Amino acid sequence: MKNLQKILVLILTITASGTFVYAQDETLAKFDVYFEANEMDAKNMLGSYSDAELESYYNFYKSGKSSHDLRSLKIIRQMEMRRADAKAAERLFYVFLAISLLVLLIFAFIIKMYGMQKQLLNEEKQ
Amino acid sequence: MNSAIFYAWASITALSWLVMAWMVFLWVPSDHLQGVAQRIFYYHVPTAWVSMLGFMIGFIYSIMYLWKRKLTYDGTAAAFTITGWVFTTGVIITGPLWAKPIWGDFWNWGDQRLVTFFILWLAFAGYILLRTGIPDPHKRARFSSILNIVAALDVPLVYYSIQIWNTPSHPKPITVYDMKMKIAIYTSVAAFTLMFFLIAYIYKRYFTTELMINEKRGSL
User: What count of CB pairs under 8 Å joins A to B?
Assistant: First the structure.
């Protein structure tokens, strides 16, 4: 009985790892199109990959690299992260400004209308 | 309108704005190319939609005034047109604030959509100025109705400018594939439409009150 369990575990592990390798290969194959595309198409294509696909490629890329290459990769990542943060902060500022001004404009208009109505009714009373 | 209905409408509008804000800032994903700046679109697009709606309703009521010569039609036309103009100002504020981080510039005079929209804004600013400059209600209604009809002819030009001139910076109508983005944009359109009709209604009520007072005084 114990042997049967061991065999089952072994079969399941092999099948699972096979599926994983297959899925990984399939994901990586998607990036072939990216490498073959021209600069403009490749740039647009980057956005179409899911987080999991990007992660998969990142792990694949890292696996065959030396410690020196991995450190170099970290330096590049650090620079890109700082750039992305600065860009996001700049964009967030414009989002904040646009929405605040729009809401302010609408409320200023409502208050002005309210004031006009009030003035009109006061004039009528007098 | 019954005050209970009015307050219910105002409450639903306030609630829809809260839901919209939650969706735009916390629920919907960022665009992969434009990042957070794309979230301005959830305010920019509905603002443009309600402003066009306002001008079209104003256009219809201006025609009705010229046909029937009833000042209530002029009041309704003015309420919708002026509210539409306020929202047009909103479009002119939010558009450049999106353009700056994405295009690198606030405005592009080479873009026909922007130029025709700016002309629209100017034309309706002229409508407001005209109304403040003529004290006689019938004369004011007649001239402003004509100007409203002429200015509203720019609305289809703004809408079709992309197809007519093939503008480089404004894309042709795009299809939104992300379901969350789709739901967020429809919610924003609904929230803005509710707000727009609420403001236009309050403004119309002002014109109606003014008309009633003038009738009482016998100045009409």
Answer: 76
